[in-house]
Amino acid sequence: MAQTEKKGGLLRKSSASKKPLKEKVVLMYDEIFTTEDPSKCNPRFWEELFLMKVNLEYLEGKLEVLDGEELMKIKDNINCLFQHCIQALGEEHPIRVVNALQTLCALIRGVHQKNKSTSGFDIINMLVGFDKAELCMKNLMESLDSLLCAEGSESLKSLCLKLLLCLVTVTDNISQNTILEYVMINSIFEAILQILSSPLSRREHGYDAVVLLALLVNYRKYESVNPYIVKLSIVDDEATLNGMGLVIAQALSEYNRQYKDKEEEHQTGFFSALTNMVGSMFIADADEKISVQTNEAILLALYEAVHLNRNFITVLAQSHPEMGLMTTPTSPIPMTPVTPLGTTPPSSDVISSAELPLDADVQTSNLLITFLKYSSIVMQDTKDEHRLHSGKLCLIILTCIAEDQYANAFLHDDNMNFRVNLHRMPMRHRKKAADKNLPCRPLVCAVLDLMVEFIVTHMMKEFPMDLYVRCIQIVHKLLCYQKKCRVRLHYTWRELWSALINLLKFLMSNETVLLAKHNIFTLALMVVNLFNMFITYGDTFLPTPSSYDELYYEIIRMHQNFDNLYSMVLRLSTSSGQWKEPASKVIHALVNIRAIINHFNPKIESYAAVNHISQLSEDQVLEVVRSNYDTLTLKLQDGLDQYERYSEQHKEATFFKELVRSISINVRKNLAFNTLSQELLLKEFSTIS
């Protein structure tokens, strides 16, 4: 018996003697792609069309093969199809609604593809016609809003969100997508908030809703008033903000889990056994193979929430009982019926202990801890462009947090102590820290740990100057808060001082190579001024008087690095080159550090000579320091506790435009045919009542 094959809308018999038969829906599409009105011969044409299972591939393929001129000839039929799709969204029968949503996706994508050519036709005119555009788009947005807010089918809501994501991302640069003007005028902001505030809707659609909101916020954000920015900045509903935080936490946690799984898999593999046998000489190369695709879309959503909405700051520290430690379930986690969109979407948006596995020591977690762990992973390897962008965005988010008064209050709160297990880059000269020995500390300690870790691990030929500057700025902003509020933080400050001194050493050792690409004196000045901050105000925020003594000990112990820095900047400041002025600023900033070195070094040498000691112990040096403070003269330096606040529009606009472009391309790529598959949707609507 001849077998029947189905391909591209054709029903073929295996026998070559008969012509291929076309599906009825394909024949109907063919009628639309003529210059005649398809409803002339069949008045029920449009009614029947939306009862047919959509053939997305065929419909988009038909649009693809037409050139601009041919498409203009059938413009009336395309307009008619678009309008009938919108009408069908108001139908009672869900099958019609599903088919209309799918058809709209194909139409929007297909027509936009043609716009990439030189045909020069207008997208809006091609889809709906200028004369009817305003009313049609208003009706479309109202229908989508109603479907998203209704109590009905979750599958329909999912398809609505996918249509909206399709609409937003058809162009790489979303600000050039003129259709979005109608999405601005006919806002769906409240519908998105409703999804995020409802546990059931959030579980099913939270991820897509958050990504959609992040993209809409970035539409022409620098050129005009974007209503989504305005509305997001004033949201104060706790359930909604917490819902958004839960979705973001879930997505970031999923990334952390995937990375941890790959890391464990990597460590138990053959290569690990080999490195154990021959030593750790290959450990850096081995680690590079641990790669999980970053999720810039969800990170952008977190940034917009933190940057625009002061109320969201409270969500960062919100402890979630459902994130607490519990046993892992034996039953598998159910998958959502359709693949969520974005770069690396989570398997589900349910926030539960099962899906947010925490370290055995951690009893509770919050969004900030999850974000810090995520940051510690993506900031390890900045050679990859996506990770570099992710790392930069992580530091921008931390910059916004470090500037916020309320955020600083809970970061430094002694009553909010957590054990935060950050990922550390494997390095030959240090042992892997034992996770179980981590102390419970205020969250600011984890932020400082992350900054120290970055400083120590990225001194490389391809020097990420921009990330280092942001890193030092974050530390400075945290110190400014501690000085202002006299917060005495019990932190291992020596690790920070050591990292900063080693950074200065690296800058000097690689002066020629780095100066060819960067103004290293900007960074050197920031590092020196961090030491000036400790020297001038350390007695107000260092935990004990002995901590202040240890600061002086480190400066004296590592004085050769400061001497070398002084020699380098003196040499360049006396020349007539381009670095004269920035080098001179560093000379001025070094005045107190040099005063400390020049004051105490002779005293230490004298003490050693009198007591016939060739090499003094740390305690002996500290004794000399404590007994000679009185005769030390330091200059008061102004502006050490002041900083320029973060400004996106003036300094980061280019970065965010490129980032949003990359996210738009990724989201569109994930909107492949399989994500719009009807099989699961039609199961839900197997009968038409």
Automatic annotation (TrEMBL):
One Pfam short name: ARMH3_C
Species this chain originates from: Formicarius rufipectus
GO cellular component, one term: cytosol
Keyword Transmembrane helix: yes
Subcellular location: Membrane
SMART domains: DUF1741
Keywords: Membrane, Transmembrane, Transmembrane helix
Record protein name field: ARMD3 protein
Classification via SUPFAM superfamilies: ARM repeat (SSF48371)
Highest taxon listed in the record's lineage: Eukaryota
Protein's UniProt keywords contain Transmembrane: yes
Boundaries of every Armadillo-like helical domain copy: 435-671
InterPro entries with a match to the protein in the record: ARM-type_fold (IPR016024), ARMD3-like (IPR039868), ARMH3_C (IPR013636)
